[in-house]
Design goal:
The protein has a domain at 19-137 and 250-404: Cytochrome p450, CATH 1.10.630.10. The strands form 5 sheets. Strands 1-2-10-7-3 form a 5-stranded mixed beta sheet, covered by helices on one side. β8 (303-305) and β9 (308-310) form a beta hairpin. α9 packs across α10 (161-172), α10 crosses α13 and α15 (278-288) packs across α17 (358-375). By secondary structure, it is α+β, with helices and mostly antiparallel strands. 46% of the residues lie in helices and 11% in strands.
């Protein structure tokens, strides 16, 4: 029996635009790993890797699995390299030169210096919920605070910060069975790009103490030995990427935390008894329910795994959500255990495209969970009110109703 043949019954189907994927893909992921670790979708034309070792190896092999064709299936399926306006859609050496420009802002030391601001923002949103017996842990808290933080860093005016998130949510939304964004989503993405382009132009005219202003002043070696400044499109690409990742990842991670701890009160009690467990808890949440369920690449040369050849000229999904539940790597992977021994973390990506803002996301999540534990040690979620997002690449909740006391 080949790895593509099911042990019994119908063949496994991986549809990243189905309600099964949006709501609970983990049984399907198990079958993918067991029956079709090198999966081919006839419906959408992509290939997918789901086992831990395969996903990690593919992240490191950028020469085979290129990022220059996009990161979502809608873009990847066009089969054309994209203009270099975002480092997430670049391969080395261009990627390495541009990533170096912003990586210094997101080192653990640099992020540590932001902790007072992060605490101020998180505390401010939670202060608004004090005295309420019910609130929505996502809509009222984990959705608005991360975009506030990254927008402050970028230099987005206060009145515009939440709109960055709203446009992104619309742009990432997918209807069941459709890999392309809705017309409203296309419009939202165009408006978001235009907004940041105009903001960059404003920063050139009137620089302030923020990341976008500094990016208008830096110079980069394009590989020809000459230093040139970034243009407005390149900086707007940085802003769109950082604003999007900064808004979405922590929103989903903290929302997931609230649900997981409510469903696993023994693990919540461990946090309440010892706050030093929170960093490990963040890593376990990231493993158990990673906000980024898969990363899109494009096959530019043939590669073989498990006796199956992935041909060039096709999108390839590196399915992190399946890899972090792989029983070939993790012991008892379907158990949520915050004291799990540390392992190589891939929830924020791996290889050259590992998340620039991982250190920022971790400190935001740790502070948010610590503050929730301090203010509301006893809470329950309203299971019937839980709502999951239907998005490309991103998974988590849009609504998590909470009762406290």
């Amino acid at each position: 029996m080949s790895v593509d043949e099911p042990a019994s019954g119908a063949a496994v189907e991986f549809d990243p635009f189905s309600t099964v994927f949006f709501d609970d893909p983990y049984d399907m992921y198990r079958r993918l790993r067991d029956e079709a670790p090198v999966y081919h979708s006839e419906a959408y034309g992509f290939w997918a890797l789901s086992r831990y070792d395969d996903v990690v190896a593919a992240h490191k092999d950028w020469q085979t699995f290129s990022s220059a064709y996009g990161v979502d299936l809608s873009t990847l399926s066009k089969g054309q390299p994209l203009p270099f306006d975002s480092i997430i859609m670049m391969d080395p050496p261009t990627h390495d030169r541009l990533r170096a420009l912003v990586s210094r802002v997101f080192t653990p030391r640099a992020v540590g210096a932001l902790e007072p601001m992060i605490r101020e923002v998180i505390g401010g949103f939670l202060d608004q919920l004090e005295g309420r017996a019910e609130f929505d842990a996502v809509a009222d808290f984990s959705a608005p605070f991360p975009v506030e933080i990254i927008s402050r860093m970028l230099g987005v005016p206060e009145a515009d910060r939440q709109e960055v998130r709203h446009r992104l949510d619309v742009g990432l939304h997918r209807e069941a069975g459709r890999m392309d964004p809705t017309p409203e989503g296309v419009q939202a993405m165009l408006e978001g790009g235009a907004y940041f382009h105009e903001l960059v132009q404003e920063k050139r005219r009137h620089p302030t103490d923020d990341m976008l202003s500094r990016l208008t002043e830096v110079e980069v070696d394009r590989g020809d030995g000459h230093l040139t400044r970034l243009d407005d499109v390149e900086i707007a690409g940085f802003a769109t990427l950082l604003g999007g990742a900064g808004a979405e990842t922590v929103t989903k991670l903290v929302g997931n935390a609230v649900v997981l701890f409510a469903r696993h009160p023994d693990q919540w009690r461990m946090v309440l008894d010892d706050r030093a467990r929170i960093p490990a808890a963040v890593e376990e949440i990231l493993r158990y329910w990673p906000p980024s369920q898969y990363q899109g690449r494009y096959s530019v040369r043939p590669s073989e795994r498990h006796g199956v050849t992935i041909p060039p000229g096709h999108p390839v999904l590196l399915v992190t959500g399946a890899a972090t539940r792989d029983e070939r790597f993790y012991e008892d992977p379907d158990a949520f255990e915050i004291d799990r021994p540390p392992t190589l973390a891939i929830g924020f990506g791996y290889g050259i495209h590992s998340c620039l803002g991982a250190a920022l996301a971790r400190i935001e999540s740790r502070i948010a969970i610590a503050e929730l534990a301090r203010r509301w040690p006893a809470y329950q979620i309203e299971e019937s009110g839980l709502r999951r997002v239907h998005m490309s690449n991103v998974a988590g909740f849009s609504n998590v109703p909470v009762r406290v006391g």
